[in-house]
Amino acid sequence: MEPCRKAALLLALAVSAALLPSLCTPDVAAAPAKPQCAITRPYDNDTVSGRFRVTGTALSSSDPIIRVQLRIDGGGLLIANGTESWHFDVDTALLQNGPHTVEARSFDGTQYSEPAIVTFEVKNGRPPGPPGTPTYVLVALTVSLVAAMAALAWRLAARKRR
After folding, report:
1. Do the bridges between strand 46-48 and strand 116-122 make them parallel or antiparallel, or are there none, so unpaired?
2. Taking the CA of residue 64 as centre, how many other CA atoms within 13 Å lie in the half-sphere pointing to its CB?
3. Which of 28, 66, 76, 81 stands 20 to 30 A from 90 (CA)?
């Protein structure tokens, strides 16, 4: 093979090798990043009672956040109020005392975020007595009953001695 032809062939092979990957590689666009979701309150391992507010933030690099969903202790999905800045009110009277988890995720119309999970402790006071009965009334009735029984026992003992 002539040196000129050899050089032309090598040049053609080099150009083909350089162009071949771009010609054969499909044009793949990078998948959009998942949205992000964070719980800002309560903090992990916080102790709560009564009514408290779960708050958080959500963001997406591609589409706007459409909704934020929450779940308490793996229960049904609940819809938070707001999107990029959101909240949800929880009544701990509906939960037992002890540890619980709240999980939140955001949705941008295409993808869900990874869940944000926080553990919290419910510590409510003792349950109240019967409706309309203040505690001091129950204590007074108990003391009166004990005193009456003691007086009756003393009287019966006094009669036996006679």
Report:
1. parallel
2. 5
3. 66
